[in-house]
TrEMBL record:
Residues 443-478 are annotated as: Disordered. One of its GO terms (biological process) is negative regulation of glycogen biosynthetic process. The lineage of its organism: Eukaryota, Metazoa, Chordata, Craniata, Vertebrata. This is Inositol polyphosphate-5-phosphatase K. Belongs to the inositol 1,4,5-trisphosphate 5-phosphatase type II family. InterPro entries: Endo/exonu/phosph_ase_sf, IP5, IPPc, SKICH. The gene is INPP5K.
Amino acid sequence: MASLSSEDACQHSEGLSLNDLESLLHLVTWNVGTASPPPDVTSLLQLNSLGPTTDMYIIGLQEVNSRITNFLSDLAFDDPWSVFFMTVLSPLGYIKLSSVRMQGLLLLIFVKHVHLPFVRDIHTRYTRTGLYGYWGNKGGVSIRMSLFGHTICFMNCHLPAHMENTEQRLDDFEKILEMQFEGEDIPSPMDHEILFWFGDLNFRIADYGIHFVRESINNKRFNLLWEKDQLNMAKKKEVFLKEFKEGPLQFKPTYKFDLYSEVYDTSEKKRKPAWTDRILWKVKNLCEVASKEGEFPEEENPISVTLNNYVSHMSYGISDHKPVTGTFKIEMKPLVSDPLVTLSPEGEWSAEHDVFMRYSTVPEFPSSAWDWIGLFQVTFRHVNDYVTYAWVEDDEISSNKDSKQVYMSASEIPKMGGEFLLCYYSNNLQSIVGISEPFQIQPSKTPIEGDLPEEESSWLQKPDNPESGGDSEKRRGI
């Protein structure tokens, strides 16, 4: 376990009260070497942890199988790694919030249902650096968002390999920082309140020979190698890296291993072990900024990050890299504390009759004729995993100054019943901005033989996909 040092007091929790929010984030970085997902990731995701529940999983993969046939099929359908993590996490109450793919680079974010209304302004971008920016085998992918009103950016990178390419790695990272969200009305990665930088960064251990490095590892004298780690050396001299922090490297270098073993490279190349797989973070110095803008007293800081643990996972052997995880506690003064939309089902729901729901919005909510309310199973995997939906405008049946009522046809309600959620999707904000409490749908008293499997129903119960805007003529009143 590690925590921020005393010199970082401005970026720690001194100004935060006991009533402030705490969120637990679990970050994963793993070069999977084009392999398929392993049979189990319980330890990787700390699913058996007795501590607080994880609020958000951030999973950054490198060298996901990107052969052209795989890549094209992944564009049309979720890739096997996304499906795998959704299958693991959706039964535990997480949905895939967002993802971004650039050839072998994949970044996935999963979040607990309860946080969905407070995660907004989600944007994804990627930057190619391979072959002078024309090829995406190297580069960076990012997902940025606003969490309870605070800006956070996650950046998964795969930088150039080999001992001699330190300067190229640094140049590429600077290029990625400059190009992500360039020309858009979005802060640059470095201007977010929190920036997480992770991936196969490919920095090596300089100067020392392979025998000294391996002997130091065998004796667990990692500190002898830290001063020659190329990233540690670069952080001391490169201005743009000095604000980045990292936990202590108290685990064995994560590259390069024989497959399905804990034995370092025995091939003819005999690559020297290195900490290529890293997780770093940077907290923007908000004490002075917030004080100038009058948002918080000078002695308080609205957000802090504490590293709880930083470890490798030696039991995973599908590639020549071992995965690395970092668990972080984020404490923040919420700038957003109320959902934009509050909604709930009305009365008893079953397929015996049309059903109704009611919603209300905050005054400043930017509603759209393209907004919709989806019916989801409680174990839904992502925003497109709806069972059915209603357009908030077309299917509205009553309204008053406080709320509006929308209906769904009995023919669209699952006859088998079960536990469900309602989610309000905002077209303008491109995200779920309201979610109901779980509720029961009563099974039909007269089930129809040959009911479609539930996974097929979302494609057939409505003729159009709300994310694509549906029937454009209908929506525009033509």
